[in-house]
Amino acid sequence: MHLLKPSWVVHSDGHRNGEIYTLSVNPEGTILATGGQDHYIKLWETKYIYEAVSNPPKATKELATLKVNSSINCLRFSPCGRYIVAGASDGTIYLWKNKQPSSNNFELLTSVKGHTKDVQDLAWSPDSKLIVIGGFDGLVLVLECPDLKTLKILPIHGTSHVKGVTFDPANRFFATASDDKSVKITKINQSLDGTYTFTEEASITNPFQNSPGTTYYRRCSWSPDGNHIAASNATNGPVSTVTIINRDIWDSDISLVGHDLPTEVASFCPRIFSVDKPIPGNKTAHLANLITVIATTGRDKTLAIWNTSNPRPLLVAHNTAEKSLTDVSWAYDGSKLFVSSLDGTVIVALFEEGELGYVVPMTENESQLSRYKRKISNTKDTAITLDDDDDDDEDGNDNDVDIEEVKPVLKEPIVESTLPKSESIKKIDSTARNEKDGPGSKTTSDKQKISFTKEGRKRIAPLLLNSSGPVISNPTPTLLETKPDPIEFSEPSSAVPPGGVSMLGITNKRKKLELTGAYDNKRLRYDNETHYIRPVSLSFSSELARVRLGVPKIRTFFIRHGDEKDNILEIRNSGDQEQEPTTVLITCNGDLVFRDFLPKFGHLATGTGNKFWSVATEDGTIYLYSPTGRRLLPGIVVGTPLSFLESQNDFLMAITCTGLMYIWNVDTLTAVNSAVSVAPLLDNETSASEDSIVKGPCITQCGVTSKGKAIITLTNGDGFIYSEGMKTWLRVSEAWWAFGSQYWGSSHIEKARGKPKSSEKSDGGVVGLIEHRTNQETMLKAGGRAKLLQRLAKNRMLREGYENFEKCTSTSHLENRVSAAILAESSEELRTFLKMYAIRLAAEGLTKKLEELCSELLGPTVKNSKSVKKWENTLCGIDKHELLKEIILAVGKYREIQSVIVRYASIIGVLN
């Protein structure tokens, strides 16, 4: 294998190389297309790249440059090789077509504004007829080639960023990967009149539960035999992996472990390989051991090559670029691999025969896909079907077209028809006969397959028509037009620090939108798309504040979902506020509950629908509504625009752009705490050097618990809870515990509880959630601080005087957990952590600490008690004597401490 990095394949402005986000190779393997930050798509002749091993070119071998209006995030050649489709950061989709078959001259055919935010990934159907596109607005678009007509808009991932798309080579499904930590499989159904419907087949979530949402891509890929999907940015414990999803059962039991940081791209080679070398004269002997090959890349700048017969990678190339790798494209023959990087370079891998395996003929691909009744739709660039009576089911239905009679044309594109559609239908049979008998025609030995339908009609399976003569296409059926579904935009403006826009998971989970492309008559319909009106205006005092947080931009409309199904809050902002006020609408099951008007633009909202609704306007006023729409209070004035507005049960939490936090109990209409600043959290690690100020951490998540406790996590992994009694912030989680404590990780918590997460109470798991967030920010990112702490912990354990370092740190970690659970009033976690802590003390022989713990739980009934403070008999709503009994029973088997606990056991009646 040779690894090349041609210095002339760059997007340069003469001073520096621009970032390359995506690339693709045409099916013939002669043209490489690259797209990136500089608003250009560049076409390169690949033969000069291949020859660079022995004969570097003296000049840049650039074939053409295609100009667009914004950065190109993804581009793909069509399977037929005639088209290039690209998605841009402004939401525009472009389609180019080469003027003549096998030419290098591409002209812009059309462009559409399909998304309101970045287009992140796209995929072609195998017949080059459909394009599936995903973007940051959470929508999945299905477009028709070549006019880019929108067939369907699918909000299957709610409002989460869609970062990966792949198409089933059998043309029955497509898969999308999103930041909602799922891969969703959508089935394609086509009726006899040519209209499409799409249904959700499956949703795979388990491999992605702990995956970070910080990756720019989640590119996935379908295997050429149709059996598997490789999905990036999965995890196995704290380790970043690529997961393999099995077809039909849609589960994942295989993880590819070989990357240190989150993976962003997984790509199957389009060819199937054999482990055995072909034997001359025996065409089938080497087909017994077939494999497929996968390439994976990610943030660790590592390229890994795998095959399905080996659990270990065939190749791992570290530090192939100076920055993250962004995209992968295989040549059609499977012998070349192209990889793009943010450092503006392209890496090319050239494989010799047998290194990956031995390529089998394409007929084997078709044979493998025939098990799934591969469907080929009518298209101008693929074979024509004479009678498409295809069924959508994957059972043994005889009505499906057999794959051996219908094969896509790759190297000989078909000439398009210039006849009217009405004439095309009448002359199709005669044209086919004339082609067969005419000069230059190619004799074929294929026989048409004849079958009979349930009604007794004869059905003849189509044959490929030769491309040497004119070919007439079937008329394109009228397609169902649908309006875009309502979508929710929860992303704030670009002024918010990176990583500082997500909401805390302990708040009420928003319901996902329906999969169907349009709502029924009872559902709320939307007539317009969301657009940004302008950023929120800040006052002069806000500009000079010690803390300045990002504020969401004002949108034309947005929605929030309550706990009940179809309970929706909608905010509509008029572009001209002097003419039309802001409208607040609440609907339930499509019926209007109430309507209200506000004098200012609304930009944040929250609520469950059962307790209350809350809307914040740009001037820093908060309005509270009952579930029926009654105003509970006059507008709450906090003085500056809000950055966060969250709710849980009866509590409402607001954080202003100047860093002041408020929490109210809406049921009693009282303040839980006065205005509290988050400045101590953000200023903690901000420092100044001689040349510049080092940026401090940013808020990644915030929320309020069902007990009214404020929770905030930062980008450095630290998690905080505000103590109203102490009047200060307390750090309950940090990266230090991850590298020094034996008890780090949620698995210990679940094992001690003896029940899964799904059975936890709504007010439980607060500490575990914060620690999970810390784990994401440190372990999975494995940034500089994480590596420093890991080295520090290991080095200290080897030095003299630090032999008990891990023991002490683990004990301190459990003590921190117990106090944090008490602070958060998390009763179930307190019960679990106290048991773990007592067992730890008993195992280590720390009798004094154990006796102190038992004494505090027993209370002033102990004869020699020196406690003079008022003693409460409950802790987080649990009887202290009950906790003491559980501790005594848990540590009773440790002989060393039995002398300590026996008297406590006798007092509370355990021995009796």
Automatic annotation (TrEMBL):
Pfam families: Beta-prop_CAF1B_HIR1, Hira, HIRA_B. Residues 404-414, 423-453 have a biased composition (Basic and acidic residues). GO terms for cellular component: chromatin; HIR complex; nucleus. It is found in: Nucleus. GO terms for molecular function: nucleosome binding. InterPro entries: Beta-prop_CAF1B_HIR1, HIR1-like, HIRA-like_C, HIRA_B_motif, WD40/YVTN_repeat-like_dom_sf, WD40_repeat_dom_sf, WD40_rpt. Residues 386-403 have a biased composition (Acidic residues). Keywords: Chromatin regulator, Nucleus, Repeat, Repressor, Transcription, Transcription regulation, WD repeat. Signal peptide: none annotated. WD repeats lie at residues 20-45, 69-97, 112-142. Residues 629-857 form the Protein HIRA-like C-terminal domain. Residues 383-453 are annotated as: Disordered. Residues 30-356 form the CAF1B/HIR1 beta-propeller domain. GO terms for biological process: chromatin remodeling; DNA-templated transcription; regulation of DNA-templated transcription. Belongs to the WD repeat HIR1 family. PANTHER family: MEMBER OF THE HIR1 FAMILY OF WD-REPEAT PROTEINS, PROTEIN HIRA. Required for replication-independent chromatin assembly and for the periodic repression of histone gene transcription during the cell cycle. This is Protein HIR. It comes from Geotrichum candidum.
